[in-house]
Amino acid sequence: MSIQSINVRNQFRGRVREIIEGPVVSEVEVETPSGLVVSSVITTRSVKELGLAPGREVIALVKASEVAIAAL
Amino acid sequence: MSIQSINVRNQFRGRVREIIEGPVVSEVEVETPSGLVVSSVITTRSVKELGLAPGREVIALVKASEVAIAAL
Amino acid sequence: MSIQSINVRNQFRGRVREIIEGPVVSEVEVETPSGLVVSSVITTRSVKELGLAPGREVIALVKASEVAIAAL
Amino acid sequence: MSIQSINVRNQFRGRVREIIEGPVVSEVEVETPSGLVVSSVITTRSVKELGLAPGREVIALVKASEVAIAAL
Amino acid sequence: MSIQSINVRNQFRGRVREIIEGPVVSEVEVETPSGLVVSSVITTRSVKELGLAPGREVIALVKASEVAIAAL
Amino acid sequence: MSIQSINVRNQFRGRVREIIEGPVVSEVEVETPSGLVVSSVITTRSVKELGLAPGREVIALVKASEVAIAAL
């Protein structure tokens, strides 16, 4: 599943694993079914408005221009 | 495996699936072993300097502050 | 109206005014009802997948961490 | 009015409506004359150096590459 | 010298060394007096509106939240 | 010296000058040999995982698409 109406190419669906809440921003960790963990920093206001909590199903989104590449 | 010395929390290891090359920037698609596709836009200079081509093993990196969250 | 399920605080609803299409990325200008113009650079693939064209109703989204402030 | 010498295409002029101050970063809300609210997360050091406070006239700036588009 | 009214902490003053112009975005290389080269991708419209050309004095600006750190 | 395998064009080598630690994110200031100061906001988790402290040698990295240009 994905948010089809948005241009953001990178969408990682999973569940919230952990939230570290700060006064202004919080770190939200999302785990996908395949075990991939995606870490996000968003405003604590957004955490509350979205009702985020461990176990909550979410999609992590990243614009392609924000992705760097390292060669191995 | 990961680049352990960098602070970027989100590292997706995979192989280059496709490159759409433009005069200034190019779109690079990376596919992870679990089938996840991560899309990146980087300078075409970097594509050449890194010697990127389909099949090449790479890591896609994203800063946590660039990741948005959508609730389902 | 807004996309309520996403954490992105800044949502500007409007219509596509102009698209400058390039081989990899395109510039999309969105005009809000109050006359504000928001400019976006996204992949040309996304422009096509979303079926963007002048007059199309869209929402421009910006993460709060991407907004700089200048004092007057 | 705008900062004409900068390449940032998206400039939203308004007044600071609210500041949520944290130890490292703060959230600054800017309201434009047409009632649009733009939210920004910047360092608390910058908040102090710029002398930001509710009512202060500011410009919120966003690079076009940071703007995502959702179709309605 | 710097743009004192903006919150962007990282300001690198220098001269344009090279511009690679594309149909939508261009790469602009800025060289500081100490020989540091900063590379920027901005819209080609902005390149034209700012009248950028090799030798032109400019400031490259980066928000602190966009800077990653690698340990050596 | 630089991290040659990564596409990030802008790499500023230096030493950590100061760290302002917050509960979720921290501000890290890096000073280059030529006296340039680069400011970064990263997660406090990363600060700890990388073992960052004043005097530590690091590289500050910035994607070219995150760099804005102001004309003088």
Automatic annotation (TrEMBL), chains A, B, C, D, E, F:
<feature type="domain" description="Mop">
    <location>
        <begin position="5"/>
        <end position="71"/>
    </location>
</feature>
<protein>
    <submittedName>
        <fullName>Transporter</fullName>
    </submittedName>
</protein>
<dbReference type="InterPro" id="IPR008995">
    <property type="entry name" value="Mo/tungstate-bd_C_term_dom"/>
</dbReference>
<dbReference type="InterPro" id="IPR004606">
    <property type="entry name" value="Mop_domain"/>
</dbReference>
<dbReference type="InterPro" id="IPR005116">
    <property type="entry name" value="Transp-assoc_OB_typ1"/>
</dbReference>
<dbReference type="Pfam" id="PF03459">
    <property type="entry name" value="TOBE"/>
</dbReference>
<keyword id="KW-0500">Molybdenum</keyword>
